[in-house]
## 1
Amino acid sequence: MLGNMKKRSHQWITLLLSVAIVLPTWGFTATPTAQASDIQNHWAKDVMTQWQSKGYISGFQDGSLKPDQSVTRSQLAAMINKAFGFTQTSSIAYKDVQSSDWFYHDVAIAKSQGYMEGYKNNTFHPDQKVTRQELAVILTSLKKLKSSNSAAQMKDTLYSPSWSKGSIGAVIDSGLMKGDEKGFRPKDTTTRAEAVTVLERSLESSDTNNSSKSSSPTTIYNTAGVYGPASGQQQIAGDMQLNSAGSTLRNMVIEGDLLLGAGIGEGDAILDHVTVKGTTTINGGGINSIHLQDATLQTAVINKKDGNVRVVTTGATTVQQMILQSGGLLEEKGLTTGAGFTNVVLSNQIPSGSTVSLKGRIDSMDISSSSVLTQLLTGSVDNLAVASGTTDNKISTTSSSSIQSLTLNSAAKVSGNGTIEKAYINVAGSTITPRVNQTTTSAGVTALIEGGVVGGEQAVTNIRKEDKKHQDSSTPVVVQQPVQSLDVRNGQAILHLNQPTNELLLSDMEVTATLNGKPYTLTNIIYDSVTGVIQFDPLNLKAKYNKILEITVTPSSSSSRLLTISKGDLRINGFTGFIGEEQGESVEGMTIHFRRGLNVTEGPIAATVTTNEHGDYNVTLPPGVYTGELIKEGFIPSYLIATSLAEEYNYDQSAIVSRMPTEGKISIVLTWDELPYDEDAHLLGPTPDGYGFHTSTDNRQYNYQNQNYVSLDTDNMSSYGPEVITIKKRVDGIYTFYVQNYSATANNGAASTLRKSSATVKVYNGAYRLPMKTYHIPVGDGEEPYWHVFDMNVDNDQVSFFDQNVLVNIPPTSIYHQLPNQAEIDMLDLEREMDLISSNQVLAYDTQIDKDISLRSSNSLNDNIAMYISDIELLPTQVNGHPISVTDDTYLVTSDFEDTIMLSQYNGSAYTANYNVTLHLTLRDADIETTIVVQLPTIDTWIEQASVEAQSKINTATAGQDITALQTALDDKNALTSHSTTDEKIAVLEKLNQALISF
């Protein structure tokens, strides 16, 4: 309905409707200080006045605010852009939006930001009024609310269309939108007063999970200068852009995002005592640098086209995560209390041939790029991992640099004369020339280490002997870890002794601990003599974050069996998250195996956790990027990318999982990397009636005769996936699957191409755990927006594939004629439904006062079809060929929700009352109207009909059946005379009905 109304910008995933409304200046005169003339007695006076005083809305030339005027799509776009300071545009070519239109620029911005797009026929409908259900969809999408079934609480939304029903429930649950005595009124247009009120609620919302950013406009500095106070601290509620070289930002806390724009060119910029809570993007700056002085950045992204940019951290600066999408130099210089660059990620968006250089001590580095040279000039990297699937990476070291732990999940060349303390090699083909003190190779893996071959058929650990600097490592020597080492984890400590651990008991040892140097008591200590593992209650990850736990195991004074003292420590880092299904249901008992690095799906497991009954998990892991493998019986295997930060607890590393298809079903699963943020899955195929369906984010369900055949089960719009389409009922024929780069122009241009997305498609047949087919996207430099993955032939139980695996500029088409468009389908459904409704209905004698009377058939074809009654008209009665008025009384009325009629009083006149009742059936945008005749017999007629039925019951009663009530009611009926009052007749009718019900 809303035409691709999806969240399309990673940066703005949770904020877009926490806005202050500002009407575009299309001929209105802004009068923010004068109180409008038409809101004095209006229910929204206070909030409208408040918004006018802030300049969020403007008055009209006559001094009015027109609170009851409806808001159009173009006006809403202008409001959001003004409130958020959006300026970036995308090219648009809508048929109904011309470059001369006042809203052209706003529509172009709306498309760029992804919160409002056009329709399938390449139109935008700028003047279309926004209905309340459309506003609910916008709010749900932009505030990332969870879909809800709460729409069923209101009678007028019980049968709302699927595209809006879940969103209506979401805004009801969140309190952003409410109903009134008439219900939710989903088809009513949104007035200015309603929009302001709803968005004011959104502004006041404190739900940080649904809206993490402020509604304040973007602060933009385009000229060189020093910005911010000389002392104190300035709070910046929104985003900020700096576009000029030679500028300084100082003493600021930026709640939103910071863009160091391309306008900085090759010049310098300084961030002095600046905290950025959103994402800092560096698109400008030269070799002399972006200086971070006593700054705190949550996430920073370098994306400078030529890669010639230097970022320097000094003093108390900490950058929690630095993501490189281009080359660059990172340098730590004169750090005091700051951690500098804690986690560095070389993304797969870095162009081939780029160079990344580092000077300083880096906690962790993850290389997901290919054909990139990483130079470790000075300092050290604690944990460096090369992701699987990467190629031709080179790492150079110097005598002034070192790597504490190197993990190679893809082959790489490591050169120079630095040192590597430990190397874990999980694939063959690597060459390492620096000194390596300890090398561990996976089974069957060999590598060239300092000129010698290391590894073989078995998993091997080689430890250099200090007295043989150039020891030939071609012959593996398996040795124990050094005596007195203790492998400390959150919840256990593993002994590495040169004596059998099964000879020991817990009473043989004293286990003590400190936390940041202070004594700490471990609870529930248990010792497993078989494994040599000491277990204890894990420390609370959030409460103890970034503190150092040190454990010492000493021989007990009463025992001599333990011969040594063991020590080890652990810095408490890690993250937590939620694992759930598409509709928000939590998944208990999901096992997650975490491996170090981005998209590392094989090799050593760093940690394993299981979700609790609420779907939550937490894991203690050193800073860095991890790939979590999610496994549970009945669910499609999937992966989670999560980050452990050095200085801050990362609490929302969550994922959506999908269930395995059951017998006869086929699921198609799409996953990809961080960029593009949004890839869309599309499936074309045959329908039972000879047409073709097209399932995607715009048409998530294909149903036929009230049965679901195909559905988009999971639609991920913020990197990685998965997107899952399931064929639930097979129809023989050819199916076509392709992937669309929805974010093609919205995020970093060519850097967000499909070819660089590392996308994978897996096809699962039935409940079989392994995929029947797997496809990997072709790589290269093309910018094609579509990936035609495969065609599939279904013939009874046989499924065969025609591999395509090509990137194309035009989406594939189906061999079948497509189904009529949704509006046509809906109209056909409405016509079929209308045919089931009798055009002449006579109300029965058991009709009760003030009870709903449904005029629809009980055999409805589509549960989503709603009905409302727009008019009830009493018709004249023909007597001897002349029309006469039956009565001035009102017998039939519409119900409160206008979807049924009700009997307000009995027909005490002498004639049947005939009513024309105008019905409307609605389904999404389709609406069909008809008029039927409803006959209301007189009370005398109903008494006769009820009496006949009562007498029939008496005549057919069997022995033992009590007919007393029926006979009494008949006796009362027979006692009626021509002089009996209407009230006396009503009493008899109700007595007859009660006796019939009770019999």
## 2
Amino acid sequence: MTFDLTRIADPELVKENRLGAHSDHRWFASPQEAATGTSSFEQSLNGLWKLHYAKSPALVVPGFERVDVDDSGWDDVPVPAHVQLLGYDRPQYTNVQYPWDGYEQVEPGEVPQRYNPVATYRRTFTLEHPLEAGERLSVSFHGAESAVAVWLNGSYVGYGTDSFTPSEFDLTDALVDGENLIVAQVVRWSAGSWIEDQDFFRFSGLFRDVVLYRRPAVHVEDVRVVTDVADDLSEATVRVRVVLAGDGSVHAAIAGAGPLDGNDELVVRIENPRLWSAEDPHLYDLTLDVHDESGRLTEHVPVRVGVRRFGIEGGLLQVNGSRVVFNGVNRHDFGLQGRVMTREQTEADIRLMKRLNINAVRTSHYPNNSYFYELCDQYGLYVVDEMNLESHGMWDLIRYAGAGDDVALPGDRPEWLPTLLDRAESMLERDKNHASIVMWSCGNESYGGTTILEVSEYFRRQDSRPVHYEGVHWDPRYPQTTDVVSRMYAPAAEIEEFLATHRDKPYVLCEYAHAMGNSFGAVHKYVDLAYREPLFQGGFIWDFADQALRRTDPAGREYFGYGGDFGDAPHDSDFSGNGIVFADRTLKPLAQEVRYLYQGYRLAVEGDKVTVENRHLATPSSAHECVVTVAREGRVLQEEVLETAVAPGESQLYALPVTVPSAPGEYTVDVSFRLRRTTRWASAGYEVAHEQAVVVVPASVVAPTRRVAAPEVVHGIHNVGVRGRHFTALFSRLHGGLQSYRYGLTGDGGRELLRSVPQPSFWHAPTSNEHGWGAPAQDGAWLIASRYATAVRGADQPAVEQTDAGVLVRFRYELPTSPAGECELSYLVDGDGRVEVTLTVRPGAGLSDMPELGLLLLTDPAFRHLRWYGDGPEESYVDRRAGSRLGVWDADVRTALTPYLRPQEAGSRTGVRWATVTDERGSGLRLESEHGMELSALPWTPFEIENAAHHTELPPIYQTVLRPALQRRGVGGDDSWGAQTHPEYRLPTDTELTFRFAFQGLL
């Protein structure tokens, strides 16, 4: 018997000779072996394999499975790996589109024929521990995309689908003494690919571990652990069911609780249990010692058990009797090698989540490696475990093309039910013992139907965890499919309105705050609602890390590639760049907002008091050290420890242990909660929560006006000059503005600080979100106004006036918008060379809001050191500044443009009181704003940034571009395909707007 590749187009062919799904426990020869973490019953087949790559099934090498086939000419390739990252085929990123769409006319369940690559893998192995009497040998392919057929020593073994759960096969009957040949054939697309249409890079191959498992004659095939916790949490019962192969016995015990008793079910009661939660992920050690009939130990099975209670109680999702809020994130199992993620890389991701105060993860949109759940158990994360199901491309036919419900896939199609139930079983049976998993998810964006309903009913029959499915919102025929109301990207106001009349189920956002590019604005509205409305229990940010792959441009410069960069089509461009961290796990600036919004304390500083609201479920505030600091312009004046003892869910008012000085000035009071002890994810002293208050102590007496010598005015034919002891300024009538500003006069006239005439700036390089809702088309008038504002000419232009404060020079500009607008730009120059700039804009009636209102000022590229007193340390925008703090910060202008996948507006700072841009000697410019401004200091203009598809395409650095501004449009991010920035974070329209700031040279 062998396998015919034409069968891969049958959706009902789910598996052949594949072993049944079982728990992911490991077994060892003894407790001593278990302590080493290496099992003599396991043998890795990771490493070098021979590979033959065929563009279609018709081109597969005949007899590829035979032992006598010469594979010496085949390529050596590593496993695990995606073949597309080994030089075969190409990576392809699509969001919704099927990767074959438009190339071949195929119907659901069918597969492309002209182009459907097949990877044939071969390798030999010799057992490290030959089988003893009664033992069996299996091979498990932990991840094979999209389907795998297996042969051993020329004999067909079996076939399995589902790219993201193990396909395990018994090899015993085909095994020979000594060297064995194993062959695996992996097709890129099978029938199941129609329901693997997730928003990700499309790959194929053996991308997770391949492992041989030796099973003793008496062996634990499956373990099921259930914990029941009393209502008052005073007692817990642990129940264990074991499926034993062979004749023997099992002795079970939990360290600290004693042995388990029973026949069909092993039971132990634990008094005053230490309950597992994301805050205290305590795990009990359960051991199963298996003996054969002679009493010989055949295997030792360790299982870590989290004792906890999770479910819908009193209409709310509760952990150990307390309402939980998911401060969550979606995570694709994706890194720099695609979906080939090591345990170490996975653990690093989880540590990073904990440091960002994330407490929950949705495995979007497929099961992860087993060690992901093991690590979540250990570190403490609530997991929504999602089945491998998405048919978004088919759903589009219903949503946008007017097709009926009968088009839905899997919908009501009975031929798809076997594969759905198989995928559900494979996930649940493998993952069921992980305390971190709190909900099962039926999949993602596949509309609805009876098949998905049956999947949800399967989950309920097998387990007590709630069931999640968002598609019910779009197909409400079977609301019982989901135990929670689940939505994606619903605005916070819409959620609140819905819950005013729908009180029957808890509400979660399985996806929200689409973090594509420069995004994550106004997310505080969601978090605030979660703590105000009991039924809204939080959500999962989309998503954790950018899906992007390293590329090298023709000049040898590295960059991160996205859809279309690999010659792939169809593709969805940079829509994969949605992470709160970059692909290399560098934090994005918005991570400071995530960390702040998700922190376990809400703190309010008012006067000499601070209110501490403890949002934890099991952690008293005394578990963290509270440090209070007073500073002035970044200089710490006093720092004290405040002892707190606020119980979980409670609030308490404390007197601050510091005093704000009485001397006039602006001060900050920072309250910081920090780890007292080192944890698995951070060292002692790591800050887990903070808040800052700004206190202004006014002067009791108005300071006398600074008097300086009046500057000299030179009225030339084409220019107006203003000159002081240390500077010159030249205003051009021909060019309509300030053409020259020199500070620090020398024999050659002094250093020129301007590269061109400053221009009013109403435009920035559109963000990913702005592209998504069509802002560039709507805002086009402001682009034209920024590039082509025309100075009004005339004998009285510019207007020049000598005042007590200095020389005032005013220019008027006509804005070529429709209808036309106008603006006035005035410069008040005093005798010390300080220039106060006032920009007043009167937009044409009916124009859209400006992307920004400021000044574009080009200066010397040597001025690359930026220091500012304002919000920091990361970039901030008017709708994303809660996590920032007022202080004095430093940055390098050359790297200040945040490297989002596609260059866009980035790197700006809010609340800037003053800033300097200087060279290595400290010379440069100082900018000031009495009431705080926004400031961007970059090497490129908005127009240069907009023109680049990748950061390597930006031009060489030849200037420093300063853009002080009254305000830039908030970044938005409710979604990235239509949701606009909230109105309160946009500049007003149809009204006069004025912006003031000042600058002066530095020596």
## 3
Amino acid sequence: MTVPGRRSSTFSRLLRHGFTDPSGAERLLDVPELSELRDDSVLLDALGATADPDLALRGLVRLAEAQAETERQTFTATLLSAKPFRDRLLGVLGASEALADHLARHPRDWESLVTYEAADLHPGVAEFEQGLAEATDADSLRVAYRRCLLAIAARDVCGTTDVAQAAAELADLATATLRAALAIARTAAPADAAMCRLAVIAMGKCGGHELNYVSDVDVIFVGEPVEGADEGKAIQAATRLASHLMRICSETTVEGTIWPVDANLRPEGRNGPLVRTLSSHLAYYQRWAKTWEFQALLKARAVAGDPELGAQYIDAVSPLVWQAAERENFVPDVQKMRRRVVDNIPVAQVERELKLGPGGLRDVEFAVQLLQLVHGRSDAGLHSGTTLDALAALAAGGYVGRADAAQLDEAYRFLRAMEHRIQLYRLRRTHLVPEDEADLRRLGRSLGLRTDPVAELNKEWKRHAAVVRRLHEKLFYRPLLDAVAQLAPGEIRLSPKAAGQRLEALGYDDPAAALRHLEALASGVSRKAAIQRTLLPVLLGWFADSADPDAGLLGFRKVSDALGKTPWYLRLLRDEGAAAENLARVLSAGRLAPDLLLRAPEAVALLGDPEGLRPRDRDHLEQEVVAAVGRAEDAEQAVAAARGVRRRELFRTAAADLIGSYGTEDNPREPDPGALVDRVGEAVTDLNAATIAGALRAAVRAEWGDTLPTRFAVIGMGRFGGHELGYGSDADVLFVHEPREGVDEQEAARAANRVVAEMRRLLQLPTADPPLLIDADLRPEGKSGPLVRTLKSYEAYYRRWSLVWESQALLRAAPMAGDQDLADRFVELVDPLRYPAEGLGEDAVREIRRLKARMESERLPRGADPTLHAKLGRGGLSDVEWTVQLLQMRHGWAEPGLRTTRTREALRAAHAAGLIPTEEAQTLDEAWVLATRVRNAVMLVRGRAGDTFPSDPREVAAVGRYLGYGPGHVGEMVDDYRRITRRARAVVEELFYGA
């Protein structure tokens, strides 16, 4: 009797044995059906050894209650006396609620767990066929299938088989099930069966002999007529048999379902015929198939139906699989396949995805299959459809490092074991790690983690996933370094041919050159070479993810040669996680940023500092430039220092732009392209303004000391004044001066002109730094007018001679350098011109429209596609800017928000003032941002300015990557550009031309 207020000894024992609901367990142990078992300590120990003792006990009670009176004694006696049976049964009941349901519905099926013979320990297809032999319809097949599944699960949870053996048994059971289903279908339609030969080819995990507990069984059907039969009718008959087979396995009946049979890997997918002849299959594969289809065929295995036809199919397609790496589109296809499918996983599930998430099963499987395709053409030892067997073969052949292979093997087994246990619980197809504490506890205990199951499970899972993430890319590249470094004489290495094949498959155009770079970087026993061998496997993967891997590797070698002897360079890349990836992105994204970096490689340091990529504001830049000018011995040295600062800041800006556009592992790409455009425009404008200020100071100091005889200011115009400069933009300016008190006007004018001439000369001197071109063509009278005018001269000209286009150009006028008071007075002078009181008259509006129409017809370069020219083309920069500027000139006098030199700011103000509807404003903004980014991309990729997409495939692919389009999506990029700018042009027609 239990003393009130004290726990019973049974309660305490249940707690010690892992029960989470001891009170409920006590009640269950008291049911009459367990009367002979309740006091048995062996039973309690066996329950405590299961993944979920509470679940196991509930299942045991249900099974005992389901026994007929005449059978219960036998069941109870067997449970008490036969330890193997007891461990198997309770192991299953503690791991699978679904199989407990099956046993409750079919209480005699426990007998299938009693036998313990050699053949029972490792059954194959023949044993499973025997187990399914009595099935004559869909329901009886389901019952027999679950009975066989029960035995597989029992061996699995008890550790009699490991995860690979369990997966193989599940594939063998699927094979036997497909054969049984086909037999049922043939029996139901003997006329169809007599007319055709049908072979079932297993694909995916079933074909690879590594099936899950609950998975689609992927198949392909091959049909042929029997001798004398009409081919068309025979294929129709085979299609009916195949369809019936699929229904038998897939449909839900009172006994549930087996698994879906999925035939979508067939030629043309779900749009293609379900059954084809062998010749039809071959014709498709030889002409139309994509790389992923050959990757899928790597696992093809004939499993049911006509064995001779199945063997003919495998013999016919196998050579095609191993020739896939020689196909024209193999590299871009591989690049597309290597990009993560993680994007398609709901954000909330990414971290719980065992299969598709980062460091998941797909990472291992894809890496192994890709290496098989690359090297299997010359090494038949790699022709295995089973992931772990193929991984072992890759390691044995030197295609993968042995240590890496061992770590991946361990990680893959653990992740597959997790997947098996998760699916086994309710026999549902899922790859998500559960969130519920009880589910995690059961999962951890099922994997042998008993001290703190949940914490241990999470720790082990994260550890193995991290191993996969770390090795996924290194798997491709580390053997390449071993091949060139030649450090351990006894190790098997990739041959030069195999190394070249691998580099080709990963996108390198010149594998021989790439191997020379690797040898130069990684050979030898120095500490520098050792660090390079650690870095390069990861860097090579990042290079391969770009549009020009060769350029990335070459740039890295050049930077490493330049900085290799500095103590901080390799340490920065090794220890600062972001620095190496940032450098890889910058070096492989085009010519401009690497060219800037190679002129002063120490700028690599910017890539490791979280603040290093943040643009510096104009005040800081101007202080640094003026200080450098002050330290220089002459004007040329002074401006060289200023241009050096400009080059460094251009690199900082370009690097930040590229990294923001590409994204990195830790920081996703910037989702707002407008923000990237604004940052670049502001940064390039500020650094050019600071450089001009430095050149002005240098020119003045060289001849006049600290004070010029005339006040002098530089006014930014065009994109410079609008803070919208791109990497390749000139600096449009006006020069204005005002003689100091007591200085002769002619002397002041001569001084101002000499300063301008000297500034332009200094900024264009041939040096290693990019020149800054100053364009003053927007001045009064254009090229025919004086370069510099006094403020009074500007006033007189604008009062008497100014044309409407000059007023429009002055919309962008903003002070940039020199005397701030003079610049401010210039702005006051031109404000009434650019924002005329009461707005523009109709004559002026017509003149602006006439000028725009003339520009469209005359200025577009000969042969240029008007739908793709970013500046002058349909819906491009000019269209948007002229539309916005017309609104500014018509309404700026009344709307203060329109009085800005910035296009996007003015567009927002026009929308806020109700001058342009929301949708039209968004359309114009989207087109302007896109066209600006295209121009920036062309400069970054080619190293020289351009207004349209490049024609070179690599260059246009790099532009696409910058704009967010993956490999193979160049056509989509161009279509999107045309669509967006076409919509913008429709808005321009309405708002600008009044159409």
